[in-house]
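Structure tokens
________________
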Amino acid sequence: MNRETLNVLSRRVAISGLVVASLGLSGLVAQAQTATAPAAAPNTAVSAEAFIRTLSNEVLTAVKQDKTLQAGDVRKVVSLVDVKILPHVNFQRMTASAVGRNWRQATPEQQKRLQDEFKSLLIYTYAGAVAQIKDQSVDVKPVRARPTDTEVIVRTLVRGKGEPIQLDYRLEKAGEGWKIYDVNVLGAWLVQTYQSSFAQEVTASGIDGLIARLAERNKQLAARKPSAG
């Protein structure tokens, strides 16, 4: 996985800046604005469709009202997402799927480092994308699923001045709420997009090589000042 390939993948992820809606960034911003109001606990009685719609609308409102989020303040976004992301995303499943069969060859310590670096990669690219949220709205399509289904796909369209952006979510029912384990941006599922490049890196330099490459990219993203354009 060379630097150009990783940059292309990161740009594709950045297109999905509104993904932070489903990661619960909005919930934390709303909580900070109304500190006396307790955060609502996730509930499986809430449909996956309603879950995505509510969070999407909240994050659009929150970002439009927060100048530092509009500016893509990396430290603030990382701090907020890091607090709220875990209840809503199954990062272990997402990372294991992206790494593929090589995941089983990794030691527990390597698996933890892979998960941490992959999470950081997504968070940093989301931080840069937050600055792009202007006048978008999100249309959530009706979910075709049975009440007993524990895994569903929620399809949405992000509408703005340009062409609508396809943004879909794979969700799993976990305990008392829903968790996201994959995202489809413009017709390409995130996990599948990373699978081939991760496999190439592991073949070339092993699990530690993949970890090192992800860590290198994260350092670059952490040092980069997001563009507000």
Remarks:
- The domain at 3-223 is CATH 3.10.450.710 (Nuclear Transport Factor 2; Chain: A,).
- The first strand starts at residue 137 and ends at 140.
- The longest helix spans residues 190-223.
